[in-house]
């Protein structure tokens, strides 16, 4: 674990009366060594510290902020043990990042028991804001529904109706496939088959051969990060494209960078952030790049946004007590480099605009990390599943 206090803050003598332990303690629980290390990992820690620094400079709060990090190794028991230690021994008030649905579900249950806040920015599962929702858990950057509403719907509406899925055999893979299936079927598509692979697979030859034999127009990749990158590489070796379209349910700009535009050109993807979208995103991303030497992913800038809004909530509430802080966060719009006029719903889902991008051809890229062309903006009320369809027990019945 790494730990450090934000510099230049007021002493404990000036702390608000409702603040525990004289400071706010935030834990970045991430994948520091596995397949999601590029998408979240140390980049999420960098982003969290940037949020603390920016909040401190702007709000000049009367409390200290301490940042810790841990590697949950994509294992629910490891993640839960770290969280329990943080809550019981280290007084951590909020945990963020969590690039695994299974780990998130384990940690958010523990957090509810301990009355602590959890803000997952890395997982996809709709369970987080539906049947397993908790009053102190807020789901940030994206989910399985948002990914399908962009990529799967766009490809199917373009006339490519038959799909075959290659799916990671764990909760996150199932969630991503579910999101894609819901969107493509609503657009008139159908699924003709699928194959699963273990998390962190090195060999996709069997799954690719089955996908080719299916004659499906589209191969949906219900996986993420390193798994998606390896699948794209091997699909190219097997000559999948241009005979079949590869559709990524979750692929990050760091994956595109590693694969290169020759292998990924023409790919459609849905993302909540692109560094080169406007002057504000460029300025923030260049600050991040100076520290990380890579442009930020949606998960990393989402972590920045979540930490910044959490600290604003603590400041507004005058306490780091979980329910009071969450109430203050829900009362404020989310306005930062990641989201404009975002809002946190009763079920804990933070809704904001999402974006459909097409990966550029190599000859169309004019400078480093110039990888995407914006094809559509998906407004917040369309990007995420309607609250009226939520099964979260904390949601009041919606008027029809």
UniProtKB/TrEMBL annotation:
The keyword Cell membrane does not apply. Residues 23-360 form the Leucine-binding protein domain. InterPro entries: BCAA_transport (IPR051010), Leu-bd (IPR028081), Peripla_BP_I (IPR028082). Keywords: Signal. Gene3D superfamilies: 3.40.50.2300. The keyword Transport does not apply. SUPFAM superfamilies: Periplasmic binding protein-like I (SSF53822). Belongs to the leucine-binding protein family. This is ABC transporter substrate-binding protein.
């Amino acid at each position: 674990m790494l730990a450090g206090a934000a510099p230049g803050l007021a002493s404990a003598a000036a702390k608000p009366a409702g603040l525990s332990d004289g400071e706010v303690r935030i834990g970045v629980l991430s994948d520091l060594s596995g397949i999601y290390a590029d998408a979240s990992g140390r980049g999420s820690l960098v982003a969290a510290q940037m949020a603390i620094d920016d909040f401190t400079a702007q709000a000049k709060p009367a409390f200290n902020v301490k940042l810790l990090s841990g590697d949950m190794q994509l294992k629910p028991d490891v993640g839960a043990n770290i969280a329990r230690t943080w809550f019981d021994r280290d007084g951590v008030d909020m945990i963020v990042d969590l690039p695994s649905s299974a780990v998130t579900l384990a940690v958010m249950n523990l957090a509810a028991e301990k009355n602590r806040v959890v803000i997952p920015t890395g997982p996809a599962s709709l369970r987080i804001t539906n049947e397993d929702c908790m009053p102190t858990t807020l789901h940030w950057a994206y989910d399985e529904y948002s990914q399908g509403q962009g990529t799967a719907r766009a490809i199917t509406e373009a006339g490519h109706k038959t799909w075959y899925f290659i799916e990671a055999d764990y909760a996150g893979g199932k969630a991503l496939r579910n999101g894609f299936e819901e969107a493509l079927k609503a657009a008139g598509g159908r699924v003709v088959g699928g194959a699963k692979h273990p998390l962190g697979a090195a060999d996709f030859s069997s799954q690719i051969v089955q996908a080719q034999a299916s004659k499906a127009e589209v191969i949906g990749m219900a996986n993420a990060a390193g798994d998606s990158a390896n699948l794209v590489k091997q699909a190219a070796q097997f000559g999948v494209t241009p005979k079949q379209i590869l559709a990524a349910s979750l692929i990050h700009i760091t994956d595109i960078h590693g694969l290169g535009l020759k292998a990924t050109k023409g790919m459609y993807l849905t993302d909540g952030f692109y560094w080169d979208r406007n002057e504000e995103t460029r300025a923030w991303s260049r600050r991040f790049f100076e520290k990380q030497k890579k442009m930020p992913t949606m998960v990393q800038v989402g972590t920045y946004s979540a930490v910044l809004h959490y600290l604003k909530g603590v400041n507004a509430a005058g306490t780091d007590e979980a329910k009071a802080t969450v109430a203050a966060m829900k009362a404020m719009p989310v306005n930062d480099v990641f989201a404009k006029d975002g809002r946190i719903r009763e079920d804990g889902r933070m809704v904001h605009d999402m974006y459909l991008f097409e990966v550029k051809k190599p000859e169309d890229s004019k400078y480093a990390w110039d990888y995407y062309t914006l094809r559509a903006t998906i407004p917040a009320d369309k990007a995420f599943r309607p609250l009226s369809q939520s099964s979260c027990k904390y949601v009041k019945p919606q008027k029809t």
